[in-house]
Amino acid sequence: MTDGRESDNASTSTSTSTPAIRMITKEELAKHIGTGEGEESAIWLSVLGEVYDVTTGAGYYAQGSSYGAFSGTDCSVCFVSGIFTKEEGDKETSEIPSEQIPALMDWRNFYAGHETYKFVGYLLDDRFYNEHGKPTRKMLEFRERVIVAMEEAAVRKAEREKKREELKRKRAEEKKNKENLAAAAKR
Fold first, then answer.
1. 92: Cβ contacts below 8 Å, ≥ 6 apart
2. What are the residue boundaries of the Cytochrome b5 heme-binding domain, all occurrences included (predicted)?
């Protein structure tokens, strides 16, 4: 689930060999909803404890916009539940049903790979990362769930594809039988 931003030496030091990982408190994140001055005029959101600057998407993330509830908070659960409240955002990732984890990972990957939304740092939150930028026990447990959920999703997809192919074959067979019956009736 990492994409090169996380290292074993993640810290807030200014070592020349390892870039410092910025740790963001919930309070600091909450200030970045696009209504402040200076840096606080930026819009940040967090998904799975990864904080992104989404200011370029203010039309979506500014207060009062369709995804405005995501700004200034980690709303990992909200991404898949569709309930955009503070209470929902405060929920544990352990409350996310396994079937919804692939959709959450799609959202995480959307932000991580977005052309203009930039990674800011990690959220200091016992659900995600500690003060050293290391994943917490809860995050490590969630990552284990991600592996299982993605494997299960792949199996479900393969089963759907198999059924789709069977149905396609069956329809082709029925069409061929109808054509043969029609041809036989003409003789």
1. 77, 127, 138
2. 24-124
Residue that has been written with the tokens 């799609």 in this structure: 106
Mean pLDDT of 71-79: 94
Confidence of residue 38 (pLDDT cuts 50, 70, 90): confident
* Reported pTM: 0.77
Residue pair 19/11 in contact (Cβ under 8 Å)? The answer is no
Query: What are the contacts of 100-107 at 24+ separation with CB within 8 A?
Result: 101/145, 101/146, 101/149, 101/150, 101/153, 102/149, 102/150, 102/153, 103/79, 104/47, 104/48, 104/76, 104/79, 104/80, 105/1, 105/146, 105/150, 107/47, 107/79, 107/80
Q: What is the C-alpha to C-alpha distance for residues 4 and 18, in angstroms, rounded to an integer?
A: 12
Beta strands per DSSP E along 50-108: 50-53
What CATH architecture applies to the domain 23-162? Roll (3.10)
Mean pLDDT for all residues in the chain: 89
In angstroms, the CA 68 to CA 59 distance is 9
How is the chain split into domains, by residue range? 23-162
Lowest mean pLDDT among 33-42, 49-58, 116-125: 33-42
Beta strand ranges found along the chain (DSSP E) = 23-24, 44-47, 50-53, 118-123
